[in-house]
């Protein structure tokens, strides 16, 4: 009866006391400091060694934090913020970490004097007011205007590595999202980037050779290259989700053969079964048959004899994209095929060789709802970074299509929110006034970090900016991340999507509130004992000195 209790006592490590919140704040600040230098167009790159021993060179906040192995649970919680931001809106992953770190840093001053619940209440009120200011300064735009869309996507990826390549990535992102966008009623459009836009990275060539295909490209060749056509104009395409080969018994099957003719009969039955399947497909006169499963040599013979090209063992996701691109329906059994299931929307089926590999193109589709972005480049590291930047650019384009509103970039939004909250803090009564004002100051972390990364005089620049935003005026005045000069963001076309900013504010403040409420860290992990060492069964309760010495980031 007592054994479970003993195990719990043996494995219980409890950290308590006034220093816990301090340790949590320090952990969050340490994570924010890791990505602080990667904010803005003049940001630094980080070189990381991933778990497989490969090298990642990037300035994408989420990609950097994903590779870190952190000891403190609060630091791990911070990493989840950038992942949430990346999944929701695809951009602002660095901003959200810096903002959350700053929110906790400014709370450090009152953590001993004011109860955390009061601080969280003030922060929540500040968040509501910040979103109200965002709504006020947001500028509605026409999502169909390509010029505005191009300017917005360019300004959002201007902070990335590919910002140096001009319009290229922005053009690819807008073309891809415009292709797969579908109407969902009430004038709204939905864009499914994950399922219907495939990024195919092919090393070699120049980055300028990258393009969006009006269709799908897959890393496959036809089953019998010598016998099957590799180029077909206006193909009729059939997509299958079943094997074109003889079914093998699920259980062990015993067949007793008495005569030699019985063996031939068994083989003939197999051949007839495959021939019947092929004939059910061939009566619809297809040019291309694509299946997710296997395709036997005999089926390959029947298909090639009738001039049909076949591709086998295709991924499910690729098959779905081809269905969306050419208008075909994926069929589970050949005997259920109908004329309406045949895809006739593609203009060209062609197999090309790039480098040492063959790629099948199903392109020039009439109204494709899926597409492939073909990326070319000098090395795999470059292509991986371009792909990460392209994903961000496509997410920004999707956000604008979903919610066509802009807010100023370059730290102007944060300064406007900060000035508005400072003004409002004078009307707040009671003890909540101080954390509310601290939250207002925390918003200035973004423009301050931008100024630091530009290499300009931070104090002088911030003073000038605060002066311009003092009375809630000049909402569009911010920092040009390239030169560090104070300019009008409208003139420089430095914009941010409304969704990205709103999500960053919500995620950062809600996470800060959650971390501030932590007053105990209890770990149930049993520490490994040295061989022959006698372990104490008593729980070890850490002192405040131990909490101070806790290692936050690994060496």
UniProtKB/TrEMBL annotation:
<protein>
    <recommendedName>
        <fullName>T-complex protein 1 subunit gamma</fullName>
    </recommendedName>
</protein>
<dbReference type="InterPro" id="IPR053374">
    <property type="entry name" value="TCP-1_chaperonin"/>
</dbReference>
<dbReference type="InterPro" id="IPR027409">
    <property type="entry name" value="GroEL-like_apical_dom_sf"/>
</dbReference>
<keyword id="KW-0547">Nucleotide-binding</keyword>
<dbReference type="InterPro" id="IPR054827">
    <property type="entry name" value="thermosome_alpha"/>
</dbReference>
<dbReference type="InterPro" id="IPR017998">
    <property type="entry name" value="Chaperone_TCP-1"/>
</dbReference>
<keyword id="KW-0143">Chaperone</keyword>
<keyword id="KW-0963">Cytoplasm</keyword>
<dbReference type="InterPro" id="IPR002194">
    <property type="entry name" value="Chaperonin_TCP-1_CS"/>
</dbReference>
<dbReference type="InterPro" id="IPR027410">
    <property type="entry name" value="TCP-1-like_intermed_sf"/>
</dbReference>
<dbReference type="GO" id="GO:0005524">
    <property type="term" value="F:ATP binding"/>
</dbReference>
<dbReference type="Pfam" id="PF00118">
    <property type="entry name" value="Cpn60_TCP1"/>
</dbReference>
<keyword id="KW-0067">ATP-binding</keyword>
<dbReference type="InterPro" id="IPR002423">
    <property type="entry name" value="Cpn60/GroEL/TCP-1"/>
</dbReference>
<dbReference type="GO" id="GO:0051082">
    <property type="term" value="F:unfolded protein binding"/>
</dbReference>
<feature type="region of interest" description="Disordered">
    <location>
        <begin position="527"/>
        <end position="555"/>
    </location>
</feature>
<dbReference type="InterPro" id="IPR027413">
    <property type="entry name" value="GROEL-like_equatorial_sf"/>
</dbReference>
<dbReference type="GO" id="GO:0140662">
    <property type="term" value="F:ATP-dependent protein folding chaperone"/>
</dbReference>
<comment type="function">
    <text>Molecular chaperone; assists the folding of proteins upon ATP hydrolysis. Known to play a role, in vitro, in the folding of actin and tubulin.</text>
</comment>
<comment type="similarity">
    <text>Belongs to the TCP-1 chaperonin family.</text>
</comment>
<dbReference type="InterPro" id="IPR012719">
    <property type="entry name" value="Chap_CCT_gamma"/>
</dbReference>
<dbReference type="GO" id="GO:0005832">
    <property type="term" value="C:chaperonin-containing T-complex"/>
</dbReference>
<dbReference type="GO" id="GO:0016887">
    <property type="term" value="F:ATP hydrolysis activity"/>
</dbReference>
